[in-house]
Amino acid sequence: xxxxxxxxxxxxxTSYRALFNWLRPSYYFPTMLAGPLFQLLxxxxxGRFARSESDAFYxxxxxxxxxxMAGVFGMALTIGGERWTQTLGPLLATPASRFAIFLGRAxxxxxxxxxxxxxxxxMGWLLLDFDPPLSSVPSLALIVLVSTISCTAFGLVxxxxxxxxxxxxMVANPAYFAMLLLCGVNVDxxxxxxxxxxxxxxxxxxxxxxxxxxxxxxxxxxxVGGLVLTEAAIAVAYAAAAFFMLRYFEEESRRNATxxxx
Amino acid sequence: MNALRxxxxxxxxxxxSMLRSSLFVFTSLVEPLIMTTIAFYTVKAGGxxxxxxxxxxxxxxxxxxSSTLFGSGGAISWQRWEGTLELLVASxxxxxxxxxxxxxxxxxxxxxxxxxxxxxxxFVFGIPFHLAHPILFVVGLPIAIVAMGLLGLLIASTxxxxxxxxxxxxxxxxxxxxxxxxxxxxxxxxxxMRPLGWVLAPTWAVRVIREGALxxxxxxxxxxxxxxxxxxxxxxxxxxxxxxxxxxxxxxLALA
Lengths: 262, 256
What we know:
The structure holds two protein chains of two kinds. By secondary structure, chain A is mainly alpha-helical. Chain A has eleven helices and no strands. The longest helix of chain A is centred in the C-terminal third of the chain and has 31 residues, at 225-255. The mean pLDDT of chain A is 87. Chain B has one domain. Chain B has helices spanning 2-19, 22-46, 52-82, 85-90, 95-124, 134-158, 165-171, 173-179, 194-198, 201-214, 219-249. The longest helix of chain B is centred in the N-terminal third of the chain and has 31 residues, at 52-82. Chain B starts with a helix and ends in a 7-residue tail after the last helix.
């Protein structure tokens, strides 16, 4: 195994286990499954009360968005946690490939995002009025995969800001909640004012959620190909921005001796 | 008298401490504004413009609840991380006298949320702000806040024993908002779910504030807030005593 592959694999697994205090179920279940499930139910009932959209609208929107629990919070905590436990300095003092270090930390969160998202869809199907055609499931799975990748890439940007800010939650918290409003999760993007819709169009998940809704409603994958490609392009753009920011902030924090500031 | 002095000093110190936390203030302000905005567009899509003030109040109370929960979940954990939990437990006053001002302070910060939400609704969305019973609103608001703070205390008291306090408190935000009808009437929930809300202070707190603002007679709801607040206090006092002893016996008090 090459050094980079080892850093990627072992570093990623160890970091992920540390994220949940060494993967204790008592930490994992409330955070990754129960919380997102109740978020989904809350907005579905809000929609019912306001007589605005169908259950399917909220199930698809929230089931895709809850991948941000891992993609955004997970990534913010992964990098912020290194600082909190005073391991960021030693980690960045190593000559290991930065690409392997941070990609290794992103992949488990990406996988986790997929699990949470799938759980959201299944619970929406079991508990709410959401019954997509069986034939749409493979297409939905592909769209969720692309959306989760773009969300994790966005999370990597948030995590990179954690190198600069004392508390990465200052970005992660508002980012997670802003997604609920701006990415078409609970509010149709067309209903937003133009300037908010413009922001929405460059955020992760927006196009993925739109594509997922159409597919769950019976549309074919090819008919939403443009949306999926746009989501993929957004993922690439955020990943590139994150990599540049991680390098830049690392150098900056070395120069200013702020790496371990908490 | 000593307990009152500790409450006053503790409340003030915790208020100052939390107001210095940009994350806490930011969360108390930004999250409710986002919730209000979502509620506004949701209501607009449903064509129920007449209920905008109803939703704005609900989003504000949800903000109070979020900061209470965030603070209560953190109340024990933060002391644990800072290494001060053992000192507090070892100090002469009962632990409950020390923890009550902390959780009530977190709920008090929620006033930011309510104010910000109502101002946001008024100036950004043009939601009319008119209080039907200003006196009942002013009297009911602190009672509602203290009742939610005492529920936070009950939650915090059970967290003495658990290292997962933060995870649990993060998880409780939406379920409690769901069963207590903060943003929508509980009549749309399944029958079995409704009684869960009856024993939770936010159910009555939001009604106190809504009826003070929109009209109605909130006296029963105020009485429920007082009653539940007392029950929470008694239960929290018991839990803190029992769990403190267990945490000391198991030597888990300082484990982060």
